[in-house]
Amino acid sequence: MKFRSVRQGDMPGVDAIIVPLFEDRIIxxxxxxxxxAVVERISREAEVSRLYAVSAHHGEGPRIVVVGAGxxxxxxxxxxxxxxxxxxxxxxxxxxxxxxxxVDSGAGLDAAHAARAxxxxxxxxxxxxxxxxxxxxxxxxxxxxxxxxxxxxxxxxAIRRGEAVGEAVNVARRHANEPANKMTPTALAxxxxxxxxxxxxxxxxxxxxxxxxxxxxxxxxxxxxxxEPPQFIVMRHAGRGGKGYDAAFVGKGITFDSGGIxxxxxxAMHRMKADMTGAAAVIAAVAALGKLRTRxxxxxxxxxxxxxxxxxxxxxxxxxxSMSGKTVEVINTDAxxxxxxxxxxxxxxxxxxxxxxxxxxxxGAIAVALGRHFSGLFGKPEGFVxxxxxxxxxxxxxxxxxxxxxxxxxxxxxxxADIANSAGRDGGAINAAAFLDAAxxxxxxxxxxxxxxxxxxxxxxxxxxxGPQGPAVRTLIELxxxxxxx
Length: 486
Ligand code: BES
Ligand code: MN
Ligand code: ZN
Description:
Elements: E1 2-6, E2 16-22, H1 33-45, E3 53-57, E4 63-70, H2 77-89, E5 98-102, H3 111-125, E6 146-150, H4 156-177, H5 185-199, E7 202-206, H6 208-214, H7 217-223, E8 231-238, E9 247-251, E10 253-257, H8 277-291, E11 297-307, E12 319-321, E13 327-329, H9 337-350, E14 355-360, H10 364-370, E15 375-380, H11 382-395, E16 399-401, H12 406-411, E17 419-420, H13 428-437, E18 445-450, E19 456-457, E20 467-468, H14 473-485
Parallel strand pairs: 1-6, 2-4, 2-5, 5-6, 9-11, 9-14, 10-11, 13-17, 14-18, 15-16
Antiparallel strand pairs: 3-4, 7-8, 8-11, 12-13, 15-18, 19-20
Helix pairs in contact: 2-3, 3-4, 4-8, 5-8, 7-9, 8-14, 9-13, 11-14
Bound molecules: ligand BES, manganese (II) ion (MN) and zinc ion.
Ligand BES binds at residues 257, 275, 332, 334-337, 361, 363-365, 422, 428, 452.
């Protein structure tokens, strides 16, 4: 699929045109008069303030797809992505080969950023979760060959970035979507190697013996109950050369979370194949930075393992020493994410990183607090947390700040060791963040994204399929780009 920018009104030989229509009903002036006529007719008939697509066939001309774009004052990167995605989704089962997309702008987003988000949205809509269906017609996407973006000004750079970012989100979604029997820690490590080689990024895999030598007993404790060997993935992007890292990404890589001895109920347990969505996000993001040749140095790590019950599994009450030297009492073997993450956070600090962002499907409690549309954002100092929030906003990921103070840090004290991995139900997402904080050294800026509410959609929506959503990928890429400019 090839993206190209054209001037508005200059869209020859296309099969379909997607036009966003804001509540003010102002249609881009340069639009062809026949197209304007159809849009006006549709917009009189349809409720266009909401995000959905109405399509009309106009004699021998192209199919016109009008997508409600809401209020211009609310227009942002996420809305722009959804408009494009909803438009393309309405073309499923059509034979659209050449598509034009009218890129409008609004209060919160200029034309270049809108174009970038539109490219991301087209790619987002061209990914489907039915990877293991044997019949093709169950996932029939339009055979898109060319996508023309009708946009003011030159959008070459916006297209280049939109393609890299949109593809990265889809890579993360594909990995999260794969069942746990196929996406084992070993398979994910092999994927990371392949993707890294393709992106010009360095990739090193630490096996159990290496992790043991480094003292990662907290991470390794989670792997004890599984026959699958754990893999600690390390990727390095040296975009500016020189020493040190501008940022470190740490992703939770539990390829299946049964809960371990503190086993989960059967209902929805199959969804825990995607408990490596954080790992998928950091792998895809650092690879995109490599492809884009972003001038920052970034290290990304993903401690990967299954969490299963077995003869060798951790028992509630067991104590382990983490790589930081702190001892951990495992109260609940289902609170395994924090156990693998602390060793990841310590590892990147030993490598010299002083800005750390971790991404994890960490707690069901974050979905209780924020629902399914915002990821929880924690960290310190406040200035850094705000930097991450700003990157998320610009990138189109939705995050919401959560508190983290000393009272929560007190709640994770253990009776017999330094810290305990569970502290009851109240404020569960915050207690988990407090546990991670115990591995953050003085002088390290740290942010934590709990994506357990946002990683998966249970409903098919006009702009997104039921399935993996690929949160945080765009935020991490944006952050890597911002640090290159800093
Ligand atoms: N992977 C889960 C969290 C999760 C739940 C992610 C639902 C996505 C959807 C995590 O490992 C977990 O089990 N957390 C426990 C923590 C508790 C035992 C302290 C939880 O949220 O119940
Ligand atoms: Mn768990
Ligand atoms: Zn988990």
